[in-house]
Amino acid sequence: MRSAHPTEQAVGMDHYVSETDGVGGRLREDDADFRVRELERFDTEPVDAPTDAYPHLVFRATLRGWDTNDFASRLSDALGISRERVNWAGTKDKYAVTTQLFSVYGADPADLPEIDGVELEVLGRAGRNLEFGDLAGNAFELVVTDPEQPDNAAAITDELRAFGGLESGSGGGESSDSATSIGVPNFFGQQRFGSRRPVTHKVGLAIARDDWEGAVMAYLGNPTDAEPEGTQEARAFVEETRNWQEALEQVPHRLRYERSMIHALAEYDGEPGPEQFRAALERVPSNLQRLFVHAAQSYAFNLMLSERLERGLPFDRPVAGDVVCFSDTDAPDGLALPDTDRLQRVDERRVDSVTRHCERGRAFVTAPLVGTETELADGEQGEIERSVLDDLGLEPADFDLPGEFNSTGTRRAVLLRTDLALETEPLTLEFALPKGSYATVVLREYLKVDPVDLG
Asked: Is the dihedral of CA 399, 403, 405, 411 positive or negative?
């Protein structure tokens, strides 16, 4: 196998599964070169439905140059409400044109503001807010700028088709005439951990180890060369001095989450201990608190997939001891959506029958996002899962955490399959992915560049 970029290896992605040289180039020369549209799965009532039963206003937003969290903050400020009343189903990137759903508790259509770079379309009302994962998936249209070897895309596609066990067109139906089915490891992409400053998993690992000070310092410190010099200096100052009052003068105002944590520590009269560091971490939005722990789980998951690759175990079919999940029968046409609530442990007797389900796109081999209710696999995959957790000094019970940090865990498919359409002038990739999967784990196989150029 071909070794991955060192930055990817730092978050558990050790290999590419295609051997052909990448096409090179970069993404996001312009926001319009990275288009994402949610594949929606959320029912609404008419906009004039009674607000006592349906208090959440649901709208579709097309955002250009807006990070989801930043847009939610700007919207809540304009409405004069808590940001916690704004909800969405999936976080999107800033440097893109994205179309996604939002819900706002207690808002009316006339309340919605005009915001530069934003188009809003009111859809109706709902009895509950949108939650993470309410969407079915995302459709992507991505342009590669200045590819060095664009003709290599065809060979890479052939290799990814073979990796996905798709030589004979199996795996969830035949592709259209303009698309080819491919498979890649279902890694968590670089942006899960921070594209330019991958530290969220370090914060989460410290939380799981009950090291609240270490978690805060992992977020406040850890300067990287990808940041402006002033930011690097401010992070180094915080690490070296722990002078919280002076840090408020040093840390740029644009680092608002860092400043929120520092404010909490500066307000404490005395030397902060675990309770104060935890309180500082809880100053950030609840979705970011959850993200820290999710990133730690994601890092462990990536390590498990890399080890499965190292051992030469298949991704498209099970071996004895694997845990598989089955497909979501309500998924939109053409989208293979794993249902991780429907799990089955595969013993020697079931390997052949479950393999046939996997070939038809009806079942998926999984690995854990470890939490308190996680039951690890048996056989060789179980050895991998236990080895990774041992190396990280973790066990499922460690995720019995306070508040938003708690996680019961789940499982996730190890293989990501999609139908991909390629255009050559300009080099454009179009595909759809199930919720929770990352476009960059497809793109990394094609470009094979520094992940900064993917994010």
From this structure: positive
* Rounded Cα distance, 142 and 96, in Å: 10
Long-range contacts from 175-182, C-beta under 8 angstroms, 24+ separation: 175/419, 176/419, 176/421, 178/421, 179/419, 179/420, 179/421, 179/430, 179/431, 180/419, 180/420, 180/421, 180/422, 181/417, 181/418, 181/419, 181/420, 182/157, 182/417, 182/418, 182/419, 182/420, 182/442
Q: How confident is the model at residue 175 (pLDDT cuts 50, 70, 90)?
A: very low
**Band of residue 178 on the pLDDT scale cut at 50, 70, 90:** low
Q: Is 225 exposed, middle or buried (0-12, 13-18, 19+ CB in 10 A)?
A: exposed
Contact (Cβ atoms closer than 8 angstroms) between residue 429 and residue 420: yes
The pairing of beta strand 15-16 with beta strand 2-3: antiparallel
Has residue 95 got a pLDDT over 90?
no
pLDDT (tens digit, 9 = 90+) per residue, 261-311? 999 999 998 899 999 999 999 999 888 999 999 999 999 999 999 999 999
Q: Is the pLDDT of residue 172 over 80?
A: no
- Given 93, 134, 316, 419, the catalytic residue: 93
Q: How far is CA 198 from CA 8, 9, 10, 12, 204, in A?
A: 10, 11, 8, 11, 12
Smallest CA-to-CA distance from 420 within 403, 405, 433 is with 433
| HSE, side-chain direction, 13 A CA sphere, residue 40 | 15
Give CA angle at 63 (61, 65), nearest 5°.
165
Quick one: what percent of the chain has pLDDT higher than 90?
A: 86
Residue by residue, DSSP assigns 300-347 as: HHHHHHHHHHHTT--SSS--TT-EEEEE-TTSPTT---EEEEEEEE--
Quote the distance between the C-alpha of residue 304 and its chain's center.
Answer: 17
Q: Is 93 a catalytic residue?
A: yes
Nearest to 451 by CA among 126, 122, 193, 68: 193
- Over residues 242-255, mean pLDDT: 95
Alpha-carbon distance 215 to 221, whole Å? 10
Instruction: Give the mean pLDDT of 113-136.
Output: 94
Checking if the pLDDT of 170 tops 50, the result is no
One-letter identity of residue 177: D
pLDDT at 453 over 70: yes
| CA distance linking residue 171 with residue 163, whole number of Å | 12
